[in-house]
Amino acid sequence: MSRQLNLGFITTLSGRWPRELPEKRREEYGSWLQDKLAQVNIIKADRLGDSPQALEAIANDFKARAVDAIVMVYGAFTGDDAPAYLAEILGVPIILWAPKEPEFDKDTRLWANALVAVTMNSAALKKLGHTCYAVYGDKEDPATASKVIELVSAYATVKKLRGTMLGLLGYRPTAFYNCSFDESLIRKVFGIRMEETDLKVVFDKMDSIPREIYEKDMSHMASAYATDQLPDKHLENHSKLYLALKEVVKQQGYDFATIKCWPEMGNLHTTPCAVLGRLADDGVHIGCEGDVDAEITQIVQNYLTGLPTFITDMINVDEAKNIMTFWHCGNAAPSLRNPNREYSINNHPLAGQGTAFYGSLKEGKVTIARFCNINGTYKLFLLRGCAVDMDRYTKGVMANVKVETPVIKIVEQIWEEGIPHHYSIVWDDIADKMISVCKLLNIEVLEM
């Protein structure tokens, strides 16, 4: 089954309205959607939706091509019959997009009357129990364009989630209750499937990697980083694990994974922090400490951006500067490094039983989030901020993020809501897109 969103596009009008403006909008808005939504399969109606016969032909084509949602642009005034028919026949959500009225004065007629049409159509669809979203404004207006893109991106993300396979490489670390999860609820809410692969499979795969293969990777790492400070065998274990995890994830057909990264892996001197960072830059995303809910957050952020994310703790706040420090042992992707600061590979900063990156992460707008199962209901913790240029001040990797809300208020609200300690950070401002995803999944957003 294809996981690309199939988006139907139709321009409508009721029969007696002039055709020139609708034809113009059909061409221009169809081209705009194809240009702005390159990752979506746009299925354009081959005619105007201006009669029952035209609507039937378009609906049959959309059904044959399995559209997941529809963008209906108002070429001109459209009665309730058109969107109601599409919703009933196809059973998919409709984005009702009403461009603004072309310029007119007291001596000219209305050419579209789209605002009236979208208002009555939206009310009619809701009365009939169908899902629709109304948008008013021209494609050239940034706010309007963003709203359409956010809605379509949300639908595309939800479709991808429904086919996602999440691999569990072990369960959770000792005494980390917040990393437990409800597999049935996750399947129900997000549509994500899960399967488990024992860590022994990973260890056996490490032992099977040919010497010439892992030594080639060791040489690559030695040329990219100063590795001479690593304890004996740590670099060898790093390269073996890097290659083994790539292979296991591919063989098992996992789209994403979580891993129980301690204590067993540490006991074998193969704590995987730096490995996970490298894999993220390769498009292999594995969440640490077996935290499935944090990993679901990473999945959504990655589907929305295509970027690696940083799964992290919040370890400190600076009330004077209103900065929050997000830190973890050394699992950030090297592409997230701050180019103004040193970035190195070292022994694990806490346990000393594997490899980890040390450094600060780059500046820029970030979205910090976590999906949380709170008393059997999913909510999204959401925070906007800006990572600042600041060196790390302890071993490991960190991002120092300036936020708007007073930091102590955020911390206290986290405690009050019962939000766990792991978060996923992506270097992009996608808070509004994540909110749109949550609306589709009926998930409450706790924005701070």
From TrEMBL:
<dbReference type="InterPro" id="IPR015888">
    <property type="entry name" value="Fuc_isomerase_C"/>
</dbReference>
<dbReference type="GO" id="GO:0006004">
    <property type="term" value="P:fucose metabolic process"/>
</dbReference>
<dbReference type="Pfam" id="PF02952">
    <property type="entry name" value="Fucose_iso_C"/>
</dbReference>
<feature type="domain" description="L-fucose isomerase C-terminal">
    <location>
        <begin position="328"/>
        <end position="448"/>
    </location>
</feature>
<protein>
    <submittedName>
        <fullName>L-arabinose isomerase</fullName>
    </submittedName>
</protein>
<dbReference type="InterPro" id="IPR009015">
    <property type="entry name" value="Fucose_isomerase_N/cen_sf"/>
</dbReference>
<keyword id="KW-0119">Carbohydrate metabolism</keyword>
<dbReference type="GO" id="GO:0005737">
    <property type="term" value="C:cytoplasm"/>
</dbReference>
<keyword id="KW-0413">Isomerase</keyword>
<dbReference type="GO" id="GO:0008736">
    <property type="term" value="F:L-fucose isomerase activity"/>
</dbReference>
